[in-house]
Amino acid sequence: MPEPEGAPRTPQGVPYSDLQHIVNADGLHLFCRYWEPNGPPKALVFLAHGAGEHCGAYRDVAGKLNQHSLFVFSHDHEGHGQSEGERMNIKNFQTYIRDCLQHIDLMRGRYPNLPIFILGHSMGGAISILTACERPQDFAGIVLISPMIQMNPESATPFKVFLAKVLNHMAPSFTIGSIDPKLISRDPKQVEAYESDELVYHGGMRVSFGMQLMAASTRIESEIPNITWPFFLLHGDADRICDIRGANAMYNQATSTDKKLKVYEGGYHALHHDLPETAESVLQEVSTWILERLPAPSRP
Description:
The termini are far apart. By secondary structure, the protein is an alpha/beta fold. An 8-stranded mixed sheet has the order 1-2-4-3-5-6-7-8, with helices on both faces. Strand 5, helix 3 and strand 6 form a beta-alpha-beta unit. The protein has one domain: Alpha/Beta hydrolase fold, catalytic domain (Rossmann fold). The longest helix has 17 residues, at 94-110. It has 8 helices and 8 strands; from the N terminus they run E-E-E-H-E-H-E-H-E-H-H-H-E-H-E-H. Helices cover 34% and strands 15% of the residues. It has helices spanning 59-66, 94-110, 123-134, 158-170, 188-196, 207-223, 244-253, 276-291; strands at 21-23, 29-35, 43-48, 70-75, 116-121, 141-145, 231-236, 259-264.
């Protein structure tokens, strides 16, 4: 049966009726992925991807977690990948958090007895932190790979912040540079895969989007002392996209009694796609940390 004319389609032209998706509070279609383990799932893991990328880039992460009976689900954030919305731009960072909670609540309704974890990378780490801060009792733990907590000091000098505010007022769509693929990973194959991925946004970052990231960073810094939920931070000390000082600040200042920080010497930004031995270690560490926080199986 042919699609009715005007039926909503992805930015790539695929009808949403052919794809798994949710519709957010603004009426936008968000493309979803679900990675189910072979047997009964022991927990749910919501995966929050980073700026400019998409959830399909995490199939290897999801596959590893599936091996441990963890059900992984995700969506492309608004303006990303196969979801609707202006490319890598948002009027309010809170929209990302609202959409994540909508998707999490949907899955909680389907699996009411399973604990829920969040795994976030880069900007997805910032989304994960703020999502957990809104519902601190709802999550069994949060895993953060190279999270965006503090803005890179090179891009957040007082003068640059002032200039960004002026530009945001006068020319919010003005672009201020794009992510250098060579800073993503030390593995040339991963850099090449990122560069050739047509679902990744390779354009420049708008000033208005940069302001939303700065606002999210400021909000996170004010929330850190109140964080009591379990978390695991993984960060490379050679990450030039998200400053490791943010991870150190969160680890030192959060009041959580269950917290862990693992630093990878020489590690770049996407640790899960860094050199093979690093990526393998990251996936093993993450799996182990989540499994250790699952409730003990009830005795018959």
